[in-house]
Amino acid sequence: MMVAVVPDGTGGGWCVELSAAGRPGGEQWHATDLAAEVAARERRDAPRWVWPATATSYPPLLRAGARVGRCHDVELTEALLLGAAGHWGEPRSLAAAHARLTGRPVPPDPPPRPPTPPGDTQGALFDDSPAPPSLQTLIDVYADQRARLRAVPDPGRFTLLVAAESAAALAAVEIGQAGLPWRADVHDALLVELLGEASRVGGPPRRLVELTERIAAAFGERIHPESPAEVLRAFARAGISLPSTRAWVLRQVDHPAAPLLLEFKELYRLWTAHGWSWREQWVHNGRFWAEYVPGGVVSGRWATRGGGALQIPRVVRRAVVADPGWVLVVADAGQLEPRILAAVSGDTRLAEAGAGGDMYAALAAEAFGGDRARAKVALLGAMYGQTGGAAVPALAALRQFYPAAWAFVEAAARTGETGGLVRSWLGRTSPPPSVTARVADLDPADGDSVDVPRAGAAARARGRFTRNFVIQATAAEWANTLLASLRGTLHETAGELVFFQHDEVLVHCLAGEAERVAAAVHGAAEQARVLLFGDTPVRFPLGVSVVECYVDAK
DNA sequence: AGCCTACGCGCC
DNA sequence: AAAGGGCGCGTAGGCT
Question: Who has the most CB within 10 Å: A236, A242, A462, A494?
Fold first, then answer.
């Protein structure tokens, strides 16, 4: 059972039942209270909801209590289909898809909304959303998508990709509305502990002021330590020439200011990126409110808008604390990308190594004389396209012992270097070179002559990108599939997904439910493995911790 | 004053 | 240890 639905923008919406073939196959009606209608139909026959875009269609329904099980997200599907057809980056909205279908001028997608802090009501004042599309538009585009979907190289896998992408979109709205439990008082205490007291006027906290003084003493002159240019000049006057002020460069500098600068940079970063003003902007009512954007990264990984939810520093995770009587179930897929490589490359020996708990240890025992660290740099270097450094001899060993895996990543790299497109396991297509190439790499500043060295460097960079794309994009598919499965079983518990970060999920649940939630997450990971890879020997073990505080996980 | 890029660093 | 992939975000510093 499928039901196509178009919200009318006033809390109501148009609905029509679709047949198994995707054509109107039942009653068509207008609901004045769409959320109530959706909730009732969901209870009765749990249809797959076909709608223009989960990101806009679902939030008002969920806010009104209408949680749905499955959907088809036309906009995300359109982006996948456009990519598969080599039309990467063209407008993906329902309106654009319908215009292409009917041969009319294609409207551009609306620019991405700037991040809206949760306390901000500006968004409601400037509602420039276009008129809602007609139900017929939705039906026509959906039928067209089904036809195009059957024409891709592997429709079975692509269908799973569309389902997983749509489910991820549901999960993203739900996680965003749940919010991440956040103790403002704990956050404040750790800021004071590390930074000292905040100054009243919004200036730097005490420890930063002190470090600035000590850096001045070390150089014999006052500088702004947060300015890389000033730091470089100060070192130059002290007779030390540095290529940059990066941390690993400073760590090798023998000068009394160097360790002070390293400490300053770390604390300055904490203050500006996750300090008091960040907390005031993004934390309200005991929750950190982030907005998640599934498929926001070219590889299919999620992005976020506002608050930097995917870059919460480890030290700040101390503020992520479960409610009283509740716990956090933290599940992390260990060594996900090497395991993905083992599964997709068809390398029998690497797949056997991925059947156990520690893949790097298995590689070390087999091909690296027991040196686990060397096995790790070899595998990571192969996936990222490392060409220099100490990893080179290790890469030779990898090539010799795991030739099929080596050939797989090399083929992806060669395709990219020659301007071709690569696809993930389920069929997400990489963007074409014009999208990822830097203008400076391709367009010699003056004259018409081709800049061979720079063109070569650009091709190699492109090769590293496609080499990694096939792995990273497939890993994102596995994670989305896990989420799709998990949100289907989680509702049997009181658990709620509250965070997702590439290969890690957090579930907030009653302490007594933790065991069941942990079992549900393990089951979802296994389900994702089977759905994507069938009978592969590779396993995707989860590290699961039940904790009150996020920082205590693992 | 606003726009843009480079830099640097947090996460995976 | 060094340096390969993907991001978001805040700042400095240049530009218009």
Answer: A462
